[in-house]
Amino acid sequence: METSPLIRPAGAARALTPVSRVLRLCLHALLFGLLALAAGRAVTGSAPRAAWVIAACAVLAVVYAAGVRAPIVHRSPLAGALWLAALGAVWAGLLVVSPDGLWIAFPLYFLELHLLRLRWGVAAVAVTACAAIGGFLAHSPVVSPGAFLGPLLGGAVAVATVLGYEALYRESERRRELIEELITTRAELAAAERGAGILAERERLAREIHDTLAQGLSSIQLLLRAAERSLGEGPPTGPGPAPDPGRASPPGPPPAVSGGPSGGPCGGGSEEGRAAALGHIARAREAAQDNLAEARRFVRALSPPDLEHGSLAAALERLCVGAPGVRARFSLSGIPAVLPTPYEVALLRIAQSALANVVRHAGAGRAELTLTFMDTSVTLDVVDDGAGFDPAAARSADGDGGGGFGLPAMRSRAETLGGIFTVESAPGQGTAVAVTLPLPVEAP
Fold first, then answer.
1. pTM of the full predicted structure?
2. Which tens digits make up the pLDDT trace of 309-360?
3. Alpha helical stretches, state H, 45-101
4. Under 8 Å between Cβ of 353 and 393
5. With 164 labelled, which of 74, 336, 353, 375 sits at a CA distance of 20 to 30 A?
6. Which residues are within 8 A (CB) of 414 and not within 5 positions of it... i.e. 6 or more apart?
7. What is the DSSP letter of 211?
8. What is the radius of gyration, based on Cα positions, of the chain?
9. Beta-carbon count within 10 A of 72 CB
10. Is 111 in contact with 7 (CB distance < 8 Å)?
């Protein structure tokens, strides 16, 4: 049994609760009050051994105060037992010289029960009760039931009180530990939720950047390369050897540039090449503007601009028209149904990513996008006649961290909405990408 909180000093490891502090003060007040009562009765009653009574009360008070202030009494069971033995010896001497020492047994009950183990504490209480009864019988010539009932009932009340207090204390400790565990669990859960939210947001941004900015920048790069090739066509602007790039230009104004049909302000190329280059540059500027709008959109978590002012089918058709370097065609099958915004965003992003793969990796000449509405699902198919690849090898590369982000991102978008994503391809036989999303069930 642990040290009593009733007599634990203020410097103990665990701070006293208000209830424990009050009980400790009450115990101190009870014992010192009873000692003062015994000494006062000895003085006022002119007892023949009044000096011995006062001395015994003083010694008992000193021994009690010393034990309360000694930390070793509360840390060592042996020291506590020796302190109780010293208190018992002095109290026995007080019983010999004064019958009023009988009442000191009651606070001693609590000390014994708190400082000793339960079985030893109960035994000590029984011995103390027997000593109190013996002291009363030694000073009283009349034997009455009260001489036996008083100490015995007092010991029983002390045992019941201490056991009840210990039960309440253990219950409060269990509740405190449970509350601390709940607080810790809640903090861990909140941290896990924050971590999951951060990871989900990172995944969302990664998908959005891959399906919008990365693809748009790739398109801009292809268009600018086409513009470079268009500007590089045709004869040079004039006769003479090409300038040496390692030789400094002579001082003076730059030479005039011919404005003939085979020259121009672009530095070379035919009129048709310059016109094609201007067309590529214009489309690159449009792609840059679209990507800027996309960047602003996904930072604000808004719907794609292509879906804000039109249907999904119209957005897919515009996507095919704007695909650089490949003849892409869009077709619609079935009766179009109104889709939730997450469905339209997912299908549009998957189409953008799949068509970007066709432009960048497949080396295809044609691509077919087909949006099919059925009774319970909607399907998007992207088929090309390009070089193809081995899907198993691509999945292995993705698992090793060396593959691209396109196919995993498309699969993740489909599976998030409960859909199915499939890829069919083989080297030299083109590629077919299909995603099927179940239509949401309308409430009756």
1. 0.41
2. 678 899 899 889 888 878 999 999 999 888 888 899 889 989 988 988 888 8
3. 50-69, 71-75, 77-97
4. no
5. 74
6. 346, 350, 420, 421, 435, 436, 437
7. I
8. 48
9. 12
10. yes
